[in-house]
Recover the amino acids of this structure.
């Protein structure tokens, strides 16, 4: 709005200057027509500017309209990704190993995870439970290899 006001003041100043100067020189028709032409050009420029600004504002409002988030239905992971999801039910603590760090039992994995034979062998740890050496998988090592323990 203040731009329109400034344009109006400039147009009025040009008009008054043109009329005053033409009266001082004994105003002939060429000077008056020149002043009116200048006012018309300035007015046309202001009109064009305002029209473009309105068009710009309309496209901006259309472009940036907020669309609410619509939750998509949950789809299962593709097989090549899902094969890295280990069942949480196989996590358990073992006597003879840290009570703070559960391990993934190999028999449970064979039963509930069809890719158990392809797990990295370097993540298998052996420990003494007091009777014999047991083996299980370390979740932190498997996580470094791209596997994750998920609730299934």
């Amino acid at each position: 709005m203040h731009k329109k006001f400034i344009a109006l003041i400039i147009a009025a100043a040009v008009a008054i200057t043109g009329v005053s100067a033409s009266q001082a020189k004994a105003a002939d028709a060429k000077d008056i027509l020149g002043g009116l032409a200048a006012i018309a050009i300035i007015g046309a420029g202001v009109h064009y500017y305002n029209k473009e600004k309105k068009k710009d504002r309309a496209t901006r409002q259309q472009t940036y309209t907020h669309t609410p988030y619509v939750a998509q239905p949950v789809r299962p992971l593709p097989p090549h990704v899902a094969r890295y999801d280990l069942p949480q039910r196989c996590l358990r603590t073992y006597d003879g190993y840290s009570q703070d760090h559960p391990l993934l039992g190999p028999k449970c994995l064979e039963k509930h995870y069809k890719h158990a034979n392809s797990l990295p062998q370097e993540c298998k740890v052996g420990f003494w439970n007091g009777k014999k050496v047991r083996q299980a998988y370390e979740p932190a090592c498997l996580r470094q290899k791209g596997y994750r323990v998920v609730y299934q």
About this structure: The first strand starts at residue 85 and ends at 87. The radius of gyration is 41 Å.
